[in-house]
């Protein structure tokens, strides 16, 4: 069994591959794989002609982030001790892959870990997706050190430490391969968005721990598939967040959380309407209706443990929007 595979999922990402793959090839030690989600552009041609050292797994259709990784990694099952899952729009740094794997080798209490993730658009700032380590509040809203909602901090070395987190970012993280398959990978009903958080929640409830190391840095462009302001992304985030709670909490606890989220997100939808953003307002309710249409497919699990959330905020929505706490250090 080899030590690690770096695996990139691609769908119509020819421009991202041309921009970011040369750096990944230059700075990486482990085997490189691209899972192609039946791209309609010239992604595969570019891979075959310009990056012959990269192995390609071609899927028959676009299965989304969750299904694409699940199906592709199934073909690598038993071949590698670790997987590093890397978005196609990430710029890496020297020894990044070796250092991530070494972090798990040294800190064996962790099943998965992410690096510090900064913005490729402005390298002084933290990135939206994962930043300096991800947490969940009591309503399952995700937030990060270095990023709460759309407010991001400048990197001044304040998160160069190592620590335990609630979830690791799908933009870049390393995971023990046997555990990925043991937990049946990502929930394919999610299609895209929040599937990595759901996997982390499921793993944590079975006693496994997630890590962050600020000693490894990557730069994430973000929005390569769906822009952060996309109504479709908002819809999927709301639907999948509800599904994650439904799967991992008791029915009584779910409905208690649901009621509070419905009020808060209903107010958010009204805010979108008042600002003339009708598509975003509609996306909120499409997220709710999408959840109810699919909720019987999101089967409730019986968790061995109920792992407490590790972050400082119990209600990050209230802290941010009503109490003016815009930075992690304020929480």
Automatic annotation (TrEMBL):
The keyword Transferase applies. One of its GO terms (molecular function) is glycosyltransferase activity. Keywords: Glycosyltransferase, Transferase. Gene3D superfamilies: Spore Coat Polysaccharide Biosynthesis Protein SpsA, Chain A. SUPFAM superfamilies: Nucleotide-diphospho-sugar transferases. The keyword Glycosyltransferase applies. Residues 6-114 form the Glycosyltransferase 2-like domain. Belongs to the glycosyltransferase 2 family. This is Glycosyltransferase family 2 protein.
């Amino acid at each position: 069994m080899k030590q690690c595979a770096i695996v990139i999922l691609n769908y119509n990402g020819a421009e991202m591959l041309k921009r970011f793959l040369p750096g990944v090839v230059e700075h990486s030690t482990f085997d490189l794989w691209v899972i192609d989600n039946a791209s309609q552009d010239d992604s595969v041609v570019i891979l075959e002609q310009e990056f012959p050292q990269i192995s390609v797994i071609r899927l028959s259709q676009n299965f989304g982030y969750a299904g694409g990784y699940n199906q592709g990694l199934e073909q690598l099952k038993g071949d590698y001790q670790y997987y590093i899952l890397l978005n196609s729009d990430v710029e890496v740094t020297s020894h990044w892959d070796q250092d991530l794997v070494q972090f798990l080798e040294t800190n064996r209490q962790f099943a998965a870990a992410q690096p510090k993730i900064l913005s490729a658009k402005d390298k002084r700032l933290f990135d939206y997706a994962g930043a300096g380590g991800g947490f969940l509040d009591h309503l399952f809203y995700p937030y990060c050190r270095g990023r709460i909602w759309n407010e991001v901090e400048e990197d001044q070395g304040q998160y160069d430490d190592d620590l335990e987190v609630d979830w690791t970012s799908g933009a870049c993280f390393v995971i023990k391969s046997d555990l990925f398959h043991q937990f049946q990978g990502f929930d394919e009903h999610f299609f895209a968005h929040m599937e990595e958080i759901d996997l982390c929640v499921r793993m944590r409830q079975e006693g496994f721990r997630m890590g962050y190391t600020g000693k490894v840095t990557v730069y994430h462009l973000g929005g390569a598939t769906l822009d952060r302001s996309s109504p479709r992304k908002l819809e999927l985030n709301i639907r999948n967040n509800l599904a994650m709670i439904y799967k991992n909490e008791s029915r009584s606890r779910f409905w208690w959380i649901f009621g509070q989220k419905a009020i808060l997100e209903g107010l958010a939808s009204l805010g979108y309407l008042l600002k003339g953003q009708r598509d975003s307002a509609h996306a909120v309710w499409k997220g709710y209706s999408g959840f109810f249409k699919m909720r019987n497919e999101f089967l409730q699990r019986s968790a061995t443990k109920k792992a407490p959330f590790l972050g400082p905020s119990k209600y990050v929505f209230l802290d941010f929007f009503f109490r003016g706490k815009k930075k992690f250090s304020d929480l």
